[in-house]
Write a structure and sequence with these properties.
The complex is a heterotrimer of chains A (265), B (312) and C (498).
Chain A: E1 26-29, E2 32-35, H1 39-58, H2 61-76, H3 79-85, H4 89-105, H5 109-113, E3 115-116, E4 123-131, E5 134-138, H6 146-157, E6 161-165, H7 172-183, E7 191-194, H8 198-207, E8 213-215, H9 223-230, E9 236-238, H10 247-251, E10 254-262
Parallel strand pairs in A: 5-6, 5-8, 6-7, 8-9
Antiparallel strand pairs in A: 1-2, 3-4, 4-10
Chain B: H1 27-38, H2 44-56, E1 58-61, H3 69-80, E2 94-97, H4 102-109, E3 115-119, H5 130-142, E4 147-151, H6 154-158, H7 162-176, E5 180-184, H8 193-205, E6 210-212, H9 224-241, E7 246-248, H10 256-270, E8 282-284, H11 287-300
Parallel strand pairs in B: 1-2, 1-8, 2-3, 3-4, 4-5, 5-6, 6-7
Helix pairs in contact in B: 1-9, 2-10, 2-11, 3-4, 5-7, 8-9, 9-10
Chain C: H1 3-8, E1 34-35, E2 37-39, E3 42-44, E4 51-56, E5 61-67, H2 71-89, H3 94-110, H4 112-123, H5 127-148, H6 152-155, E6 162-163, E7 166-170, H7 176-189, E8 193-197, H8 204-216, E9 223-225, H9 230-238, E10 244-248, H10 251-261, E11 267-271, E12 277-280, H11 286-298, E13 310-314, H12 318-329, H13 350-366, E14 369-371, E15 387-390, H14 397-400, E16 407-413, H15 416-424, E17 431-435, H16 439-448, E18 453-456, E19 475-476, E20 489-490
Parallel strand pairs in C: 1-5, 7-8, 7-10, 8-9, 10-11, 12-13, 12-17, 13-16, 15-16, 17-18
Antiparallel strand pairs in C: 2-3, 4-5, 6-20, 11-19, 14-15
The chains are: A alpha/beta (265), B alpha/beta (312), C alpha/beta (498).
């Protein structure tokens, strides 16, 4: 007689914990009941992301790079599980390689994107990139895993914290990823993942006054509305694409700070 | 009275959180401020006022090894009547000479408003024993000098022996008696505006009636920013103590345009109260004729030639 | 003769020294009675048939009438820009593009006095600022971006930068020509064509700039200048054939533009308001810090988005700073913008004056203590005395809202943490100032302040090589420097893998 498997309850990932939706709602996706997050879960996730921001941006770039590399390690060891929940092994490997690629950028993008500026007066003047803050990400539906990673990795490598709305049709890989994140060295709250209905949740994220930027690339028809809401606090709006990988993807979520100081004795 | 606890050096009682603290000077900012004040456009009657004031404030100077009583006679008559053809041009404030020439100068200025200032204290280097300096000052005062222009001991200052510098000024001041004491910082040797401010405060604390930029014996003499730093120190002392200390930029001021720039800076830093020869002097040897030419240009509307102005 | 007697035979020295007026001559500027819109290389009457007067805010004299661009005019301008883009400008060699920009820079230098006088006349800013700041910087901006035109591939390694297309640019009235330069120079360098809308109250230097373009023989349609009020700007924003909008102005209008463009996929950069903190630590070089405070808030009548309008003073140094500041204010010379000795000129418009007056009144009502130096203001024109508010609480409107006038709000702090917290406690994030002699503190503060520009031991410095732009509600995108090219180039490419 074969053994009856023990099933996993797929929950949200907020502040390093795995709560159910405060609404108590679920929906069925990929043959499983998945938490259906509410606007209050969005609120809680943004709060967690905001409180994690100071520590995450304050870590050394070298350290952030190591944390990202650790994510790749933890995913690699879960390749089988992730492959089952995504389009397969190839997608998982692509996602793992993406983390490794971005991990290496952690202590380099400032050198590529920053400048020292030869002003025509006795001042030392330099421009450095800094994280913008809390970033909302509406992840693409497909590919469910690598698409999410393609949008998330450039956000967090730059020192931002994120609230991600996972693929609505295939959310399980995102939660599996969350388990890898929770067992890596990513501080709680740096990445928060919500499952549920994007049309319901994305406007709350786009209109949230404590979210600094939003990637609406994975939203469906509601992009104009999300962009309108984003204007309430002049959010940086990015229409991310899952097939993009470059330091400019990091730059899209960075502010540039220019510092002047006189040169004298 | 409670006995003060022992404090690490640098903490001077009373520990009031007030100026003047030594503080520091930002080079770029002070130079920008000085440059911006120098861009004031002073025209017509405002310019005539400034030129007239510049004459009244001038310390007409000769500090040469070849100075003789004859040279001093010429200098003093120029000082008393800078422009013999124009009686409205006032006398300068003082003549500034070496100690040996004091008697000749005193003789010549008698009966006029022009004062006699003498450099002293092993001018220009100041590298002699304090006792020698004090003796020199006593002599020049005895010979009739109204004002003494001393130099600080830069060697002591730059090696951090501020007390030595201070004590020496105190002794010189005492030796001056009623004569006014101008303390020359020789800013060209101090290296930084921070040091200029520090030396200014030190000199004022020790009793200087005037602080003065330079001996005129170095290529780096008075500049607008260095003078501004000193004016700001004077302002701080006045704010805190009510005491008014005078200022004398010296060296390198050759053109009337510069003189006007110095006066604008004075006016906008210390206000009209300081617009008097009692509190401001311009130390110069060749400035006077340029100012006279400008005055006559303003009066006649014509550009002037040096041929029409006596050299001394 | 005694000392006293000697002193008495001297003529008394007058006790005050009034600087004689030193006005810069207006003769260098020749004004038309009426200006049309600059479209396709020609100044043409607006199809709208509407004109409006433009004033000198220091005298309320009408200087000229300028056209109000209507929807049809905006459409013509966009067509002209599109045509110039498709038929030449985007394809001529970058080195040739560069040479046009170099020409423009040179002509601006040659005609700088004329532009400076007109800028002060139409905008009310002191001639010494238009002469020494606006004009040199405007010319330098063209010179800087000219050099980039044929070097874009070095600015964006691994990319093939391409122009975005037709750019609509809307600029404010505080630095009319300089903002024009900030907008037009990078756009043209990258191969775009533009439609520029100057501010309603300050159109004249932009219209004179059209003459510079004529002298430079810039192909028609590459730059189009349409004047008018907000309606013209709104039309430009809405126009479907504009690829990119760049706006400098209020946060309120910026948000409206962002909403208007939602879903269109048009590129947008915003340079909006600010409420910058200028932070003075007790070890600062005080006299220079006071100059920095003055330059931070009274420069250009405080009509500066990055103005240091909130002064945060460490409590241990509060008294001397305020004393020095008040004393310094008494030497500020307010008056005729064309007088070379004027430090603070006229408020740009009646509307702006009323806004300042309203906010200052609210400050007094909320309980702040007001200080204004004695000051004689001209009878005609729009004027406001340089003002300092002390005893200001963080919650007062004057500590929260952008006044955009010569009004400083003073707050205190005790520790660096408190200074950072107060400085960042605003939706804005354009700029900040830090004054301390301690190097490590400068770097720590600079990193913790949420601001696109941090001036340490200086304030309100600008340079074409130095990126400028805000965090948070102060906008996004940068102007100046290498980063200022980015809004005008398309660098997107499909996936590049390691």
């Amino acid at each position: 007689m074969s053994r009856l498997p023990v099933r996993k309850t797929y929950k949200l990932f907020i502040g390093g914990d795995f709560p159910r939706s405060e609404s108590g709602r679920t929906y069925e996706a990929q043959g499983q009941n998945v938490a259906r997050a509410s606007r209050k879960d969005v609120r809680d996730a943004v709060r967690a992301a905001r409180s994690a921001f100071g520590k995450w941006r304050g870590m050394t770039a070298y350290n952030r790079g190591q944390v990202l590399y650790r994510i790749a390690e933890m995913m690699e060891s879960r390749t089988e599980d992730l492959a089952e929940l995504s389009s397969g092994r190839k997608e998982v490997e692509a996602a793992v390689d993406r983390w490794v690629w971005y991990a290496g950028w952690a202590d380099k993008y400032a050198q590529v994107l920053g400048t020292s500026n030869p002003v025509a007066a006795p001042y030392f003047n330099f421009t450095i990139p800094e994280p913008t803050g809390v970033v909302g990400i509406v992840a693409p539906d497909e590919p469910a895993l690598d698409g999410l990673v393609a949008r998330l990795a450039p956000v967090v490598v730059g020192g931002n914290t994120a609230v991600v709305l996972a693929s609505e049709s295939a959310p399980l890989a995102a939660i599996q990823l969350a388990e890898a994140l929770a067992t890596s060295d990513v501080p709680g709250g740096v990445v928060n993942i919500l499952t549920g209905f994007k049309a319901e949740l994305a406007p709350w994220l786009a209109g949230h006054m404590d979210v600094n930027a939003i990637d609406v690339g994975g939203a469906d028809g509601e992009i104009p509305e999300l962009e309108r809401l984003a204007a309430d606090n002049v959010k940086r709006v990015v229409r991310g694409r899952a097939d993009r990988q470059s330091p400019y993807e990091i730059a899209a979520f960075l502010e540039l700070k220019t510092v002047w100081h006189p040169v004298g004795v | 009275m409670a006995k003060a606890p022992a404090l690490p050096s640098g903490f001077e009682l009373p520990l009031e959180p007030r100026l003047p603290r030594i503080g520091s000077i930002d080079q770029v900012a002070v130079e920008e401020r000085a440059a911006s004040l120098a861009r004031r456009s002073i025209k017509r009657e405002a310019k005539v006022f400034a030129l007239d004031l510049a004459v009244r404030m001038m310390d007409l100077t000769t500090l040469e090894g070849q100075d003789t009583p004859g040279k001093i006679a010429a200098l003093t008559s120029k000082a008393i009547r800078p422009d013999p053809s124009d009686a409205s041009v006032p006398s300068v404030a003082a003549v500034c000479v070496y100690p040996n020439l004091v008697p000749a100068a005193v003789e010549r200025v008698r009966g006029s408003s022009v004062k006699v200032a003498s450099v002293a204290t092993a001018f220009p280097s100041g590298q002699s024993p304090t006792s020698v300096k004090v003796a020199e000052v006593r002599e020049v005062v005895d010979m009739g000098a109204d004002e003494v222009d001393m130099v600080i001991d830069r060697g002591a200052f730059l090696s951090g022996r501020y007390a030595k510098v201070y004590d020496e000024i105190v002794q010189i001041k005492e030796a001056c008696g009623d004569a006014h004491l101008k303390v020359i910082l020789e800013v060209g040797e101090l290296g930084t505006y921070d040091n200029v401010r520090r030396a200014s405060l030190l000199a004022m604390a020790a009793g200087a009636d005037f602080i003065k930029t330079s001996t005129g014996k170095l290529p780096q003499a008075a500049t607008l920013p260095v003078t501004l730093v000193m004016l700001e120190a004077i302002r701080d002392v006045h704010e805190e103590t009510g005491r008014k200390v005078g200022m004398k930029p010296a060296g390198g001021i050759r053109q009337s345009k510069q003189a006007v720039q110095y006066l604008v800076q004075l006016h906008e830093t210390l206000g009209t109260e300081w617009l008097t020869p009692d509190l401001y002097r311009l130390g110069a040897s060749t400035l006077l004729n340029d100012v006279l030419m400008q005055i006559r240009k303003e009066k006649t509307g014509r550009y002037q030639s040096p041929d029409y102005f006596t050299i001394d | 003769m005694t000392d006293l007697e000697r002193r008495q035979d001297r003529a008394p020295v007058p006790s005050s020294w009034d600087y004689a007026p030193a006005p810069e001559s207006r003769d260098i500027v020749t004004l038309e009675e009426r200006y049309g819109l600059f479209i396709g290389g020609e100044l043409a009457e607006p199809k709208s048939g509407e004109y409006f007067p433009t004033l000198s805010p220091s005298t309320e004299e009408v200087l000229a009438e300028v056209g109000q661009a209507g929807p049809e005019d905006v459409d013509l301008a966009v067509r002209a820009a599109r045509d110039a883009y498709e038929n030449g400008w985007s394809t001529i060699s970058p080195a040739e593009r560069a040479k046009y920009l170099f020409r423009i820079a040179r002509i601006l230098q040659e005609r700088s006095r004329e532009f400076a006088v007109l800028e002060s006349l139409n905008g009310g800013k002191p001639i010494k600022e238009s002469r020494d700041v606006d004009l040199p910087l405007a010319a330098a901006h063209f010179f800087y971006y000219a050099g980039w035109a044929d070097k874009l591939e070095y600015a964006f390694p691994n990319r093939r930068p391409r122009p975005v297309g037709v750019a609509g640019q809307i600029i404010p009235w505080n630095f009319p020509l300089l903002m024009l330069a900030w907008k037009i120079a990078p756009a043209l360098a990258a191969g775009n064509t533009v439609i520029l809308k100057p501010a309603e109250t300050t159109p004249l230097t932009a219209l004179l700039f059209a003459d510079v373009l004529r002298q430079a023989e810039l192909p028609p349609g590459v730059v189009n200048i349409i004047t008018g009020d907000g309606r013209a700007g709104a039309e430009l924003v809405k126009h479907p054939d504009v690829d990119k909008i760049a706006f400098t102005g209020s946060t309120e209008v910026g948000k409206a533009i962002q909403r208007e463009l939602a879903g269109t996929g048009k590129r947008l950069t915003l340079e909006l308001g600010g409420k910058a903190a200028n932070i003075i630590f007790d070890d600062a070089a005080l006299d220079q810090a006071v100059e920095g405070i003055v330059n931070g808030i009274y420069f250009n009548q405080g009509h500066v988005c990055c103005a240091g309008s909130r002064l945060l003073v460490q409590e241990s140094i509060y008294e001397p700073v305020i004393e020095k500041l008040k004393r310094r204010l008494t030497t500020l010379r307010v008056g005729d913008p064309l007088d070379k000795n004027t430090d603070v000129g006229a408020i740009n418009s009646k509307q702006q004056l009323e806004k300042i007056e309203e906010l200052v009144k609210s400050g007094e009502e909320e309980g702040a203590e007001i200080y204004q130096p004695p000051c004689r203001l001209p009878e005609k024109g729009y004027w406001f005395v340089p003002t300092v508010f002390t005893n200001v609480a963080q919650s007062y409107r004057i500590a929260q809202e952008e006044i955009f006038g010569p009004v400083l709000s003073v707050l205190t702090f005790r520790t660096p943490d408190e200074a950072v917290e107060k400085a960042n406690n605003t939706p804005y994030g354009l700029s900040a100032g830090v004054w301390t002699e301690k190097g490590s503190r400068i770097l720590s503060m600079a990193s913790r302040l949420e601001a696109g520009v941090v001036w340490a031991n200086t304030y309100n410095r600008f340079d074409p090589t130095s990126p400028f732009g805000g965090y948070k509600e102060s906008g996004f995108g940068r102007e100046g420097g290498l980063h200022g090219l980015e809004p005008y180039v398309d660098v997107e490419e499909s996936e590049v893998r390691g």
